[in-house]
Design a protein that fits this description.
alpha/beta, 15 helices, 8% strand
Amino acid sequence: MDNAVLLVDDEANILNALARLFLDRDVRVLRAGNGEEALGIVQREPVAVIVSDNLMPGMRGVELLSRVRDLSPDTVRVLLTGYADLPTAIEAINRGEVFRFHVKPWVDEEIVRTVDEGVRRHQLVRSLRHGDEAALRSIAQTIELKDPYTRGHCDRVAAFALTIAESLRLSEGTLRAIRHGSWLHDCGKIGVPETILNRPGKLSAAEFDVVKKHPGWGAEVGRQANLPEEVINIILYHHERFDGRGYPTGAKGTEIPIEARIVAVADVFDAMSTDRPYAKGYDRAEAMRVMGVLRGAALDPQLVDIFLAELAP
């Protein structure tokens, strides 16, 4: 199973304290007392997540995680650091060597949450890389389980998006990418806590900031899994707006790839038509009216016109 978590620290009491956090979790805990020992474990068997102290005799944690990145790129790398070497940790993150860092003394719940997310991320990357079309759809449906209100969303978005794409007579390869991208557009939500996804009221600014990270997280997973560029574009840009006021990049107009603009139309229409924790869905006539309001602002006006024409009786 892809659930091995490797804990690395030169102090046995710290290793024991970390290991106790995962006694009731669905992970297999491995331990190493130094960098060389940890590298030996990574070379021998798959490791989903490695959590390493930074200041250790011999090989520092940053160097260890850099070498793990080369040996096992899919392994999610987490650094434990003291305040004194915080700039080192930030530099490591900026160089792409570290997924997250936690400052000592750590908060138990935060470490557990990071490791849980890391294991899910590792499993998702490997599944995406090796999955056929049926597997990709199954992965999307599994991600939907985090938010019961979106059940069936990925299939409906794919159907709506393909209706637009076929009207534009796009190539078979692009149609396939749009189908796969529609299924996977929300895969970054694997990093968003269910408590936020299922919040019945309005999200706080901080909670919405977390939600806004999911396109970037998803695109990063897609790149790691070597998904086609058009699929990654859909994952990254599906919350951009035609007027440039979307997220995460603020791209506008035709700066947004056509495949992402198509899926955005389908995604918005299905979201409006579906009951959510915070709002009851519109009926089809009202959803079509609101789509008309959004044309040229949130959504590509040409694509909205094509979509509404296809929906019209």
